[in-house]
Amino acid sequence: MLIVLKRIFHSGWKSFFQNIGLSIATVFVLVLIISLASSLFITKDITQFVISEFQEKVDISVYFKENCPEENILVIKEKVETISEVKKVEYISKEEALESFQERHEEDKVLIDSLDELGTNPFLASLNIKSWQASQYASVVSFLENNGFEEQIAKIDYFQKKPVIEKIFSISSQINRTGLILSLVFSIIAILIVFNHIRLAILNSKEEIEIQRLVGASNWFIRGPFIVQGIIAGIFAVIISTLIFGFGIFFLSSKIGEIVPGFVLFEYFASNFLIILLIQLLVGIGLGIISSSIAIRKYLRV
User: Fold this and answer.
1) Which residue range forms the structural domain that includes residue 79?
2) N or C: which end of the chain has fewer CB within 10 A?
């Protein structure tokens, strides 16, 4: 059995290099597919990291009317805390809002002097609400608007932040959708190229195949070398794409860190290297085997 496998592998290896031009084209396309699949895996996690960071920072503020008693605001706070979508609620009094504003703008003397000239506190008491996910703020706002609180509420800043929240999720969806479409297109191209490679290999080996049939070679022995060619193309593509991807990530890590603070790309790649390598092997070798099998079924009647 081992001898047969050795012969099948040797024959596939030899045929792979006999059609070196087409083999290089096949490997090149597979490298593109593997790199794209790896990029999608990393991009998905970067997007999730950005959304997670965004959700940690985004919140909504509910501002209450000047004449709304503090006791009423605290009652509303307790009711809002019972909503399952709400992670945290913080009460900010008028005095705390004023103090916070003065601390943030302490170096802007003109602004501070203008505030002092007013003689009164222009800020409103508010509830700062943070939900578990940015998409849940709509239901929190609906709760506030439909439970008899609207007469005490001056403003909810959700409607100013809503376009930003929706834009983040829209960008995320577009990235994922575009990546899937590109993966599908390039996968079809890769299958067609590997398919054509194996088809030519079968046609070039026509006489050899006839001789193998005459001497009683098994179907597996005849088909095996062509499957091996697809596997070899996939393995070469994985090796090349891993090297390119590794060097690319090493040089891009600092730039990604500037765009997405807190996300260290190279550390992420190192800690997920085995998963990424597995994805590359599945994509590269999988496409090679699938394409070879389709070509064999169509052109090799054994």
Assistant:
1) 66-151
2) N
